[in-house]
Amino acid sequence: MKIVLAALAMSLLANGGSAFAADADCEEKFRQLLGGGGSDSGEYPFTARSITEMSGQTMTSTFVAQDDETFFTIDDNSKSWVVLRDGTGWVSTNEGKSWKKAYTIDPVQAAKQKVQTQQRAEEATNIACADGVEFEGDTYRQLSGDWKSVDGTGLTGHADYYLRADGRWHAQVQDMMSNGQRTKITQVRVPKGEELTVPEVE
Question: What is the dihedral of CA 69, 75, 76, 81, to 10 degrees?
């Protein structure tokens, strides 16, 4: 997941939103989302359409998160299906009829990355909120902030979350910069009734 933007107050005013410094609840919610949420955050499960813009290319996919460790991705370009479950990645090139084990995540590295993600969220800056911000024709509460990696890679980013009335995010935009290369990822939850589930791979 990845991040962007600059003059937050100006852009919020242009969108009809009222910008203000983050209150305690707003800041806590932003850090929770940026830190991965956790399976008990109320954000899971979800299905979202994902758009990745990088190096002049645009890639689209459907992303399903059962919890904060179990994921399913359908890539629109390659038509491949990828499932990550119990630290193992599985790939199908025939719409789930058969699966091939592709990789295994080192649990030590996974635990380290989780700690770094939490630290990144705790150290986020310029957190601000605005109500009534428009996103694709509807209005939401927007949480925004800047972050940087804590692993020495120099990766920096800006995150925007658009919250529904029930407090769950409807969309999130991650705009990142690394070694002069920008990557922007936008995820939008699919309408109710269009959610997918993570398929079994064995």
Answer: -100
**What CATH number is associated with residue 69?**
2.50.20
pLDDT digits (tens, 9 = 90+) for 10-24: 222 223 333 344 577
How confident is the model over 101-148, as pLDDT tens digits? 999 999 999 999 989 999 999 999 999 999 999 999 999 999 999 999
**Residue range(s) defining the domain that contains residue 81:** 8-189
Residue 80 lies in a domain: yes
User: Are the C-beta atoms of 25 and 111 separated by less than 8 Å?
Assistant: no
Structural domain count, the chain = 1
Q: Taking the CB of residue 115, how many other CB atoms lie within 10 A of it? A: 10
